[in-house]
Design goal:
Keywords: Transferase. This protein has about 375 residues and is of the alpha/beta class. The protein contains twelve helices and eight strands. The protein has one domain: Glutathione S-transferase Yfyf (Class Pi), Chain A, domain 2. Strand 7 and strand 8 form a beta hairpin. The longest helix is centred in the middle third of the chain and has 22 residues.
Amino acid sequence: MAETATSSSRRGYVESSFKRDTRYISDRVTADGSGENAWPVEAGRYRLVVARACPWANRAIIVRRLLGLEDAISMGVCGPTHDEDSWTFDLDPGGVDPVLRIPRLKDAFEARQPGYPRGITVPALVEVSSGKVVTNDFAQMTLDFSTQWREHHRDGAPDLYPAHLRPEIDEVNRRVYSEVNNGVYRCGFAGTQSAYEEAYDRLFDTLGWLRDRLRDQRYLVGDTITEADVRLFTTLVRFDSVYHGHFKCNRHKLSEMPVLWAYARDLYQTPGFGDTVDFAHIKAHYYVVHHDINPTGIIPKGPDLSGWLLPHGREALGGRPFGGGTPPGPVREEERVPPAHQPTDRWPSEVLGGPVQEHLLHQDEE
């Protein structure tokens, strides 16, 4: 399931063997509104509610930006932490979303189904006029952004789900979802030693498979960025900040795995990826919300983020990030991640929590 706030947090997140709840409001938004439980594509009708902390929501933010859907689908951003049963709009003035006019995402789920019985998850697509959640099926949501919202794509938008590569993308996505996206949670929420060790081995076996796949090709499927790269990136970008320590995925840091580290930096430095990442929100969410794993609520100062800006060298493998298209333009001012929450060429050591490489601090002077 997408990142969730649920009453189960009263008893904590750790389970003897973690199993993700994959029941969603599975309605879709389709180009002509056809299909069972389908809603029509219509610019301005829906609002995408996200939390930058959440890897599943981060996918939707990236795809929306790469495709240039900002004018067609507005975006509301929840804060990095939530209470026991809802994500909240505590970043907005008065703690109320300025478009939906609600303080809690739970209100939109309750508008759709009074007494909604499952977790309140992001990302969620909400109909503005009714205030009802249309869908929180995060996997289908981004595929529909690519295939159903084409008339609202920007000029030069990439094809993130090309028809001729869909079987291979789907196959890669299934393994990445099961063993990596969900695998880190299976490690972190394991309640027994045996469950943890099984999850740990499965995770790093798959990271090895990905390493071998990416050693001689720039992207996961084909020679351009696809949905598969988006889905892997949002786990990799959180790996050293939270999964390595907080979830005990500690055979290696991402920064100690040369192929995957270079691949992740390549994507991070591609417009539409790194400019959506809020490291401060990421760390606050995991270390504060998962109280049974980190009961003190202390948020680590590290790791040093400056490495995300180092040259990656992946251009030598060829490939065209956007195919025949172009990168997205600058991030809209109201959607920018605060500079203090991202690495820069002059990232202060007191924010990093560690020493900064001198050539990054002074590269303008070289």
